Amino acid sequence: MARAGLTADRVVAAAADLADEVGFENVSLSALARGFGVKDASLYSHVRNLQDLRTRVAFLAGGELIDRIAVAVAGRAGRDALAAFADAYRAYALEHPGRYAATQIRVDQALVADSPALRRTAEITYGMLRAYGLEEPDLTDAVRLLRSTFHGYCALESSGGFGAPRDVQRSWERAVDALHVALTHWPREAQVG
To answer: 146 Cβ partners below 8 Å, 6+ apart?
Structure first.
């Protein structure tokens, strides 16, 4: 592939594809350059360094994930929205393991504030949870509960961590039901003021 065709977007998309193939932690500028048939130095006019590349992959993947979730939850509320959100999240994590891993990295908060995809993620997630009557600080706590539950389940499932004969899909559905009950009966924190 000729160097002339390289753009930052193509480099990041190729890195995301490579992450799905070999694992996010195994993406390197050298492997990416080999895939393009160029020297490593050719990539530095498109990304500053490996950390910059990984951050860009995280933003790309985060945008893809929230786009999928937004379509799934559109027009839904309550348990239906929660299930659609959860199913879209899980499907993305299982279909795109490298991209999904990128969404879990710690990113500089200054960059997060400038990211339309991450702002959209917060809007959609908090919007879904507001249907349960949650307000701050309970919203933040509920987001953390959902994220840790979804991430933990997906991480265990993708690594073959569920060995019991119980159907994994049925367990997932029951977990979502349990989350719905927890959100419906959320123990409200007293407002200080």
So the answer is: 85, 86, 125, 129, 179
Contact 32, 47 (CB under 8 A): no
What whole-number distance in Å separates Cα of residue 57 and Cα of residue 37? 20
Residue 92 one-letter amino acid:
Y
The answer to whether 99 touches 19, Cβ cutoff 8 Å, is yes
pLDDT bracket for residue 115 (50, 70, 90): confident
Closest by Cα among 150, 143, 133 to 185: 133
Q: Report whether 134 contacts 186 (CB < 8 A).
A: yes
Phi/psi of residue 177, nearest 5 degrees: -60, -45
99 closest CA partner among 170, 14, 159, 185: 14
pTM value? Answer: 0.91
User: What is the rounded distance in angstroms from the CA atom of residue 176 to the CA atom of residue 50?
Assistant: 37
If you ran DSSP here, which 8-state letter would residue 115 be given?
Answer: -
Q: What is the DSSP letter of 185?
A: T
**CB-based contacts of 137, cutoff 8 Å, min separation 6:** 189
Say how many Å lie between the first and final Cα of the chain, rounded: 62
